[in-house]
């Protein structure tokens, strides 16, 4: 298998699908954080890996790179349109060991997914869940005894930032959380994940956290794209669409040369283990 990271990078530079380039750009910015988590988990060639709420790309490319041609990666997402997009992305990148499944993770059993799995991954997934303990318990049940779970979820209290500051970044981050919580997500689920993990019967192996810091040009473009991509969710929840549009435009209109750097939100990084 050709190097997956190189294929992703090449598409970002030369691909003809602007939205796919945006999605892969987000994945590439967070790829090092994902790789660090997977290496702590001991992910190796031949492992079976599960990406929970994979979205259009999630950690699929990095996992495919690490488990190699003898491994298997399964992504699960509840939105049929997102699953169709993820299948297109993985086909474009030639990720032959990746399968993307359409369904609710809480209702799919291990046999249907091809488990049990050696490792599972959650990024930007548990923050949307109404009962994170139940979701963590469900993911744990899909792992083999001793299997690992890598969680990288952003906390509400520490939004994306820029220097000098750009108020629209914190404003859109707060608005997205308000919309998620009004739709039933637990309040600041990411911040409570260590407590939730223990309640779900999982062992905490590592706990840390980090920001991603990128160039202003890249960071502003990614944040503006994220706000625009959230528009449909805000509209479906009856949220302030005009406000989300205004924030997207404010970020889009910001001059990268006015800023030294732009960051992601703060991600809590946990490595959990299903007891043997």
Describe the structure.
It is a single chain. This protein is α/β, with parallel strands linked by helices and 276 residues long. It is 45% helix and 21% strand. The chain contains twelve helices and ten strands. A seven-stranded mixed sheet has the order 3-2-1-4-5-10-7, with helices on both faces. A three-stranded antiparallel sheet has the order 6-9-8, covered by helices on one side. The two termini are 33 Å apart. Helix 5 links the parallel strand 2 and strand 3. It is globular. Pfam families: Methyltransf_31. InterPro entries: Methyltranfer_dom, SAM-dependent_MTases_sf. This is Methyltransferase domain-containing protein. It comes from Pseudonocardia ailaonensis.
Key features of this structure:
single chain, 276 residues, alpha/beta, 7-stranded mixed beta sheet, 3-stranded antiparallel beta sheet, 12 helices
Strand order of the largest sheet: 3-2-1-4-5-10-7
Helix proportion: 40-55%
Continuous helix count: 12
Mean pLDDT: 89
End-to-end gap: 33 Å
The computed structural class is: alpha/beta
Shape: globular
Report low-confidence residues grouped into runs of 5 or more: none
What profile does the largest beta sheet have? Answer: 7 strands, mixed
**Strand residue content:** 15-25%
- Based on DSSP secondary structure assignment, what is the total number of beta strands? 10
The Rg value, from CA coordinates, equals 18 Å
Q: Name the helix and strand elements from N-terminus to C-terminus, one letter apiece.
A: HHHEHEHEHEHEEHHEEHHHEE
């Amino acid at each position: 298998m050709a190097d997956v990271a190189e294929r992703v990078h090449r598409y970002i530079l030369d691909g003809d699908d602007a939205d796919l380039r945006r999605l892969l750009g987000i994945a590439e910015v967070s790829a090092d954080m994902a790789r660090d988590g997977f290496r702590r988990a001991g992910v190796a060639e031949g492992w079976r890996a599960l990406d929970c709420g994979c979205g259009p790309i999630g950690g699929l490319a990095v996992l495919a790179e690490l488990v190699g041609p003898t491994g298997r990666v399964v992504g699960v997402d509840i939105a049929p349109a997102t699953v169709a997009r993820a299948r297109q992305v993985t086909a474009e990148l030639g990720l032959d060991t990746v399968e993307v499944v359409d369904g609710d993770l809480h209702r799919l059993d291990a046999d249907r997914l091809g488990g049990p799995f050696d490792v599972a991954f959650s990024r930007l997934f548990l923050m949307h869940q109404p009962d994170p303990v139940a979701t963590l318990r469900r993911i744990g049940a899909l792992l083999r005894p001793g299997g690992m779970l890598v969680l990288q979820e952003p906390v509400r209290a520490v939004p994306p930032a820029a220097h000098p500051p750009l108020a629209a970044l914190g404003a859109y981050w707060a608005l997205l959380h308000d919309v998620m919580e009004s739709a039933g997500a637990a309040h600041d689920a990411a911040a409570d994940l260590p407590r939730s993990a223990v309640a779900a019967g999982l062992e905490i192996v590592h706990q840390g956290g980090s920001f991603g810091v990128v160039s202003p040009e890249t960071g502003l473009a990614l944040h503006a794209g994220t706000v625009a991509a959230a528009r449909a969710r805000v509209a479906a929840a009856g949220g302030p669409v005009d406000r989300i549009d205004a924030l997207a435009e404010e970020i889009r209109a910001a001059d990268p040369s006015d800023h030294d750097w732009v960051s992601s939100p703060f991600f809590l990084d946990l490595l959990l283990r299903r007891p043997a």
